[in-house]
Each structure stands twice: as C-alpha cells, then as structure tokens.
C-alpha cells in the first residue's frame, strides 16, 4: 500500500499542474466566456519550459497589449530614449536642435524638466528639420475620435502632450494651457469641450466643468505650431532651419521608466506612438512609427514574427493582430532583459483584484468587444509564469469578462 501511495505522489509531481486540457476545461465551464473567441498562453519562466494554453496560434485583436511590444522594442534597442539632437555653436550662446519624437516636453501629466534645464543657458535656438515619415493618425484609427485625449496627433516633437488643458479655478474662471488658440464659451452646448475638425477652434461650456476637474482636448499639430509653442514655453527665440542637423550630440532622457510606466500603467497612446517613432530614430535616424514597427517585428525569429501584424505603437488600430504565444514570448524577453523588480515598477499590479497581496503584474488591452490581459504571475508555489489571456468578440458586458479573467488569475495562482 505504501509503495502505491509513493508511486501516486511521484506521478502527481511529474504531472503538470497546468495543462492544455485543464485550461480548456476551465474555459468551457465559464459561462461568461460563452460566444467569445478565447486564446490563452502560459509558460513558466525557466529555460525550455513548455507553453500551455488553447488557441495559441490564433490571430487576436490585441488592443493596448501592443504597448508591451513597444516597450520591449525600446528596452531591446538600448533602453535609453533620445530626448534631443543638439549642437552648440562656437560662441556658446546658440543651440541647434533637432527633434526625436520624444513625448514629454511640457507634458501636462508627466513632468519632465530635462529639456527646459538643458536649453535655459542659451539665448538663441535653431530648430533644424528632422528626417521624418509620420502620419498624424495610424491605419484604422477612428476618424471621429480626434476630439479625445486618447487620440492626440502624432508629431515630430510632441509638446504639451499635443493637447490643451482646461480647468476651472476657485473663482470660477476657466484657464487653458497653452492659451494659443481661439476659445469660444458656449453655455448652451451639450459637450463640455469640442474642437472643430480642421481648425484649432474650441467651444467650451464652463457650466459643465466642475471645480477641480481637468479636461484635455487635442490640437492640430504642425511644425509651425510646435515651434511657436516651444518658443513660448522656453521664453527664448526659436528660429527654423531647413537644413538637417549634422555632427550632433544626443541628449538622452532621465525619465525612461516614467515613460514606460505612462505606457503600461496609464496606457497613454501618444506616448506609446512617440516611443515607437523614437525607436526608429535610434536605428534609422528617421522619426517613423512604421519603421519602428518593422524593427520590432523583425526582432523575433520568423516563426514568431509571422504571428505579429502591427500597424501602430499603441493598439488603437483594429488592423493589429497577434497571438497569445507571441505575447508571452515578448513578456519573457522583457523579463530576461530587465528582471522582475523593474517589471514590478513599470507594470500595473493585480488587475481588478482587491485585498490581495501583489502577485500579478500585467497590461490590459481593450477595444469594443475585445479585452485582453497579459503579464507575469507569481503562484502559491513560488513559481513565476508569463501568461496571456485574450478574449475577442465577446457578446456580454465587459464586467463579466473582467470577472472571468480575475477568476483565471486566481486559478493560475492556486494551481501552478
């Protein structure tokens, strides 16, 4: 009898705690997932471990899970982010600069004083034309979302996050930063803030703005607009030069993890798009999201690259496709490059789960009827896994899908 028991225990330990069959059984029993397309991949973070899951190679709409690849690209291509190209004149009072796509200059949410401190000593600034291949919007972005913060325009040098910031002061007055555009106050309109599609002409209803609220609305970008805003921000003359800057130095950002956190924790689309364009600049000397995407896709071997179809750096495009297998291999590469402690710093924790010790760090991705969650999980047996659970075309309320994912996370924590 003892021999049988010992043999049973040995076999139990050899048999994987997670398996394709178990995952499939969990999905089939979860009523919240009925009618959805579900792809799940999970792998222990040890060399040569097997990948478990279902529909591992099914193309899924990733939404903001694309941002995982954008951050991976930045880390793998040097893990430093060029803020500015520059050249100091022989007289030491003139600075020649060229943009890099860096997104935090005068940003209303993410304070970065690096550029301001660097430029302050100079009396004259020349802004040199950069190499750029950049469309303001990505493929399959919604044309009528131009009025919302999440779809601020891409540009060669984002400034103020390419949005105006609107808030109500204690005396009831409306303040707007930057205040370079035409503002119309309309107490009758239903929208709090509205911008004309082809002009930086804003209509605001102050009565709908609560004290303490801060609102954001994108402005239409142009090089002329950027230079004008930069001049006002720095309080220094800025002149434009058609010549590309040569024999330049590079100023790197000191805010690398702040940028990664803005992308992964806050899911900031423009910052992610800008980082993708910045990746291209590092290798091609060209500010280009398309070239950045190409670099990242070619970073993998052919088998994985064939499971990634990217069209932007943020996940706004519905053309993006990726498999759960490709996502966990991307997460694994991040782990190999920066380790768990830094991952804990830049990824949000614990999904929607409350009153739990920190055990999961991941990124959500949401577009209408598509919700995904991919990241790292520490289990009750002190094992560390990468995972991706992707749920597309669900017909139920989003809250039910979130509940299903939370249930899956608890399942993984307890059974692996």
How would you describe this structure to a colleague?
The chain has 416 residues and is of the alpha+beta class. Among the domains are: 17-76 and 288-415, DD-peptidase/beta-lactamase superfamily (Beta-lactamase, 3-Layer(aba) Sandwich), CATH 3.40.710; 159-220, no CATH class. The protein contains eleven helices and 18 strands. It has helices spanning 2-14, 20-29, 66-76, 114-119, 223-234, 256-264, 269-284, 289-297, 302-305, 324-346, 398-415, and strands spanning 37-44, 51-54, 82-88, 94-98, 124-128, 163-168, 174-177, 182-185, 193-195, 201-204, 214-218, 238-241, 249-252, 308-309, 321-322, 360-367, 370-378, 384-392. The strands form five sheets. A five-stranded antiparallel β-sheet has the order 2-1-18-17-16, with helices on both faces. It has a five-stranded mixed β-sheet with strand order 12-5-4-3-13. Strands 7-6-11 form a three-stranded antiparallel β-sheet, with no helix packed on it. β1 and β2 form a beta hairpin. The longest helix is centred in the last third of the chain and has 23 residues, at 324-346. The chain is globular. The protein starts with a helix and ends with a helix. The model is unreliable at 1-15 (pLDDT under 50).
Write the layout of secondary structure elements.
Elements: H1 2-14, H2 20-29, E1 37-44, E2 51-54, H3 66-76, E3 82-88, E4 94-98, H4 114-119, E5 124-128, E6 163-168, E7 174-177, E8 182-185, E9 193-195, E10 201-204, E11 214-218, H5 223-234, E12 238-241, E13 249-252, H6 256-264, H7 269-284, H8 289-297, H9 302-305, E14 308-309, E15 321-322, H10 324-346, E16 360-367, E17 370-378, E18 384-392, H11 398-415
Parallel strand pairs: 4-5, 5-12, 8-10
Antiparallel strand pairs: 1-2, 1-18, 3-4, 3-13, 6-7, 6-11, 9-10, 14-15, 16-17, 17-18
């Amino acid at each position: 009898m003892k021999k049988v028991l010992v043999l049973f225990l040995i076999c139990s330990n050899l048999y994987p705690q997670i398996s394709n069959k178990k995952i499939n059984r969990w999905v089939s029993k979860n009523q919240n997932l009925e009618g959805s397309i579900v792809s799940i991949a999970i792998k222990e973070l040890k060399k040569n471990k097997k990948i478990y899951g279902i529909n591992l190679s099914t193309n899924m709409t990733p939404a903001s899970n694309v941002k995982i690849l954008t951050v991976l690209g930045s880390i793998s291509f040097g893990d430093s982010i060029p803020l500015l190209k520059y050249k100091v004149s022989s007289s030491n009072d003139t600075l020649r600069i060229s943009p890099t796509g860096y997104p935090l200059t005068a940003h209303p949410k993410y304070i970065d004083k690096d550029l301001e401190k660097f430029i302050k000593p100079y009396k004259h600034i020349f802004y040199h034309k950069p190499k750029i291949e950049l469309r303001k919007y990505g493929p399959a972005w919604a044309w009528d979302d131009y009025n919302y913060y999440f779809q601020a325009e891409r540009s060669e040098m984002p400034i103020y996050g390419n949005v105006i910031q609107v808030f109500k002061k204690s005396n009831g007055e409306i303040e707007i930063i930057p205040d370079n555009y035409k503002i119309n106050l309309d107490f009758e309109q239903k929208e709090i803030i509205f911008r004309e599609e082809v002009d930086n002409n804003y209509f605001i209803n102050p009565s709908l703005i609560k004290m303490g609220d801060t609102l954001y609305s994108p402005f239409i970008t142009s090089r002329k607009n950027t230079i004008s805003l930069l001049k006002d921000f720095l309080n220094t003359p800025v002149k434009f030069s058609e010549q590309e800057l040569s024999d330049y130095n590079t100023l790197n950002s000191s805010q690398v993890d702040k940028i990664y956190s803005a992308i992964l924790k806050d899911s900031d689309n423009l910052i992610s798009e800008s980082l993708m364009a910045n990746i291209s600049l590092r290798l091609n000397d060209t500010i280009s999201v398309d070239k950045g995407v190409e670099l990242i896709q070619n970073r993998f071997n052919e088998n994985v690259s064939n499971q990634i179809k990217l069209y932007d750096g943020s996940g706004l495009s519905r053309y993006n496709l990726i498999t759960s297998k490709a996502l966990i291999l991307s997460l694994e590469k991040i782990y190999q490059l920066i380790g768990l402690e830094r991952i804990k710093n830049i990824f949000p924790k614990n999904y929607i789960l409350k009153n739990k010790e920190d055990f999961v760090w991941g990124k959500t991705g949401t577009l209408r009827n598509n919700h995904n969650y991919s990241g790292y999980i520490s289990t009750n047996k002190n094992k560390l896994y990468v995972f991706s659970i992707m749920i597309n075309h669900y017909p139920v309320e989003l809250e039910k899908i979130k509940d299903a994912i939370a249930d899956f996370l608890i399942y993984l924590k307890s059974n692996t």
